[in-house]
């Protein structure tokens, strides 16, 4: 009888020892997992922070706003044109300034802050307008896949900071070549109007190139890039 009790106590002791070892192993696994998770957390946080610095909210839309049929046509554009030099002239020299002036005039009538001119946005817009004429396409994405975001990165605007951006495009011939006609056409198009009057943006750059995409007619092609950086 004593032998049976002794054997039972021995088995109970072994069982308790095995359970203790399993519990210790489980605790060690949880500790290792927690340490691994804690080690990964700063890296994940750093990656998230780095992503936030370069995040982009891009509103883009393209519509062929072409020809004399899309001329001034709006009383608002007519009134604004009288306040902006070169607004009703062919956009040879003062076209970009006149276009931005008209956009700011439209914003002012709605209590929105004016957009400041930005050299980087203007460079991106000018290059895109010139490229569309030279290669005969009309789109926010150039042949080969170069996008609006790519263009902003290339000029150094979409880097190091959190930023937002938008772009509008237009081309015209005849009476539809002036800044007043192009801004009026944008304002009549709800998607374009939304970008021009967005309270998000703080600066803009206008690019105008002689010629129209894929055509032999005399005219001008416009690109307007809008943005805001938070550094």
Overall description:
With 231 residues, the chain is of the alpha/beta class. It is 49% helix and 17% strand. It has helices at residues 2-53, 75-81, 95-108, 119-135, 148-154, 179-188, 190-196; strands at 56-60, 116-117, 162-173, 203-210, 219-230. It has a 5-stranded mixed β-sheet. A hairpin with an 8-residue loop joins β4 (203-210) and β5. The chain is globular and about 115 Å long.
Q: How would you describe the shape? A: globular
Summed over residues and divided by their number, the pLDDT gives a mean of 76
**First-to-last CA distance:** 84 Å
* Helical proportion, percent range: 40-55%
Low-pLDDT parts are 25-29, 35-62, 66-74
**What order do the strands of the largest sheet run in, or round the barrel if closed?**
1-3-5-4-2
Number of helices: 7
Report the sheet-strand fraction: 15-25%
Radius of gyration of CA atoms, rounded to a whole number: 31 Å
Major sheet attributes: 5 strands, mixed
Total beta-strand segments: 5
> Strand-and-helix sequence, N→C?
HEHHEHHEHHEE
Class derived from helix and strand content: alpha/beta
